[in-house]
Amino acid sequence: MKKQWNLIVVLLLVLIIAVFSVINVEPVTVNYLFGKAEWPLILVIVGSVLLGALLAGLIGMMKIYQLQRTLKKAAVKTDDE
């Protein structure tokens, strides 16, 4: 039953993003260090969300790796005693 709710939530999010993208198609100017470009607003928003999610995921994975390494060191110390 939980997978069905997850599917419904994902479908609703995709529907909201689709409606949002249809509404926000006007171009905006994006200033880079080396120039400017015109992009549709929805691409700027979706790109920012994806980069933010990727960054948060990488930071979370690094923290999990550090905690696993600490846990292994603690387990080795208790085995030695």
Could you walk me through the main structural features you see in this protein, from its secondary elements to its overall organization?
The chain crosses the membrane at residues 41-62. One of its GO terms (cellular component) is plasma membrane. The mean pLDDT is 86. Strands 1-2 form a two-stranded antiparallel sheet. Strand 1 and strand 2 form a beta hairpin. The chain has one domain (2-80). The chain is flat, with a radius of gyration of 21 Å. It contains two helices and two strands, in the order H-E-E-H. It has 81 residues and is α+β, with helices and mostly antiparallel strands.
As laid out across the biggest beta sheet, the strand order is 1-2
| Total count of strands | 2
Which residue ranges are poorly predicted, with pLDDT under 50 across at least 5 consecutive positions?
Answer: none
Number of domains: 1
Beta-strand percent range: 5-15%
Structural class estimated from helices and strands: alpha+beta
Please tell me the overall pLDDT.
86
Helix tally?
A: 2
What composes the largest sheet?
2 strands, antiparallel
Please tell me how large the radius of gyration is: 21 Å
InterPro entries: LapA_dom
Keywords: Cell membrane, Membrane, Transmembrane, Transmembrane helix
GO cellular component, one term: plasma membrane
Pfam family, one: LapA_dom
